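Q: Could you fold this chain for me?
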Amino acid sequence: MLNVVITGGAGFIGQKLAQELLRRGSLIGPSGKPETIHRITLFDTVEANGPQDERIVTMAGDIGDHGEVLRLIGHNTHSVFHLAAIVSAGAEADFEGGYRVNLDGTKHVLEACRAITTHTPRIVFASSVAVYGGDALPKTVTDETAQRPTTSYGVQKLTGELLINDYSRKGFVDGRAIRLPTIMVRPGKPNKAASTWASSIIREPLSGVDVICPVRPDSPMACLSPRRTVDAFIRAHDLPGESFGKDRTLLLSGIRVTAGEMATAVERNSQFRSMGGNRRIGAIHWQPDAAIQRIVDGWPGETRSARAAAMGFTTDASIDEIVQGFIADDLDNQIKSLQSH
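A: Sure. Below is the predicted structure, expressed as structure tokens.
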């Protein structure tokens, strides 16, 4: 019987991951075989709102507080999905807060796992393509591309990857890190991530709301859908550690889509909306923000990992697949949320 912890469990991906784990009902355990999930603890700065299931426990706390993390992760913890973070633009604006959560918080999680003596816990760390950067960054990042982060967030994520490698090398944890491109489309409201516009210019227009895009239409983004992301987290967890070799970090492939192509995909797929058939499509107003544009310009426009493909990880076929997935999975609730306010 497995006990699972998801940090950042009140967030969008944390909630999606919990729902999928509940549906599947099992993960690979310390035995190396599938074991039934007994409990999933969702930890975040606020109480997670669901999923409603007797296997779900919610905890609110501070990942930057070592004592709280020790209370969260104990000898009965078998697996940790570490998603908690202050996102890119937020970490850039709040230097101390970014390091406290993104670096100290990761170290606290690893130290709590190291204190477990009954078994070696598995940990999956959510990293980011923000570990790349610089003027010489290629249009397509591959497994061979050097990591030269140009933001505090990128530095913090790269450091977390190195810690995962080292703690795994020492046998303290069975860790793996997945380097995520931009995950879209996220429901809800915009957050402080520099990439939040990539969801906003699809989510808001399809909900009948106007939106401001802070980057140029020709700005590319390496994109991955929530469905593929959740599958990747679970696959990364369940693969044996030796399949990663000495490098426990894996780049995920993300398709190249420009902001202008995202806007076009909204128009092209708007007929698939299942609610509010007579709702207008919200307008996109192009108003580049120099600070956001500078951050986005330092990121890859596409990621392509032959290593991930060989290990069975898949990506989306097109921006249309991503938009249609959002319409099918999340648009109805997005519109209901807007109507309730």
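A (continued): The chain has a mean pLDDT of 94.
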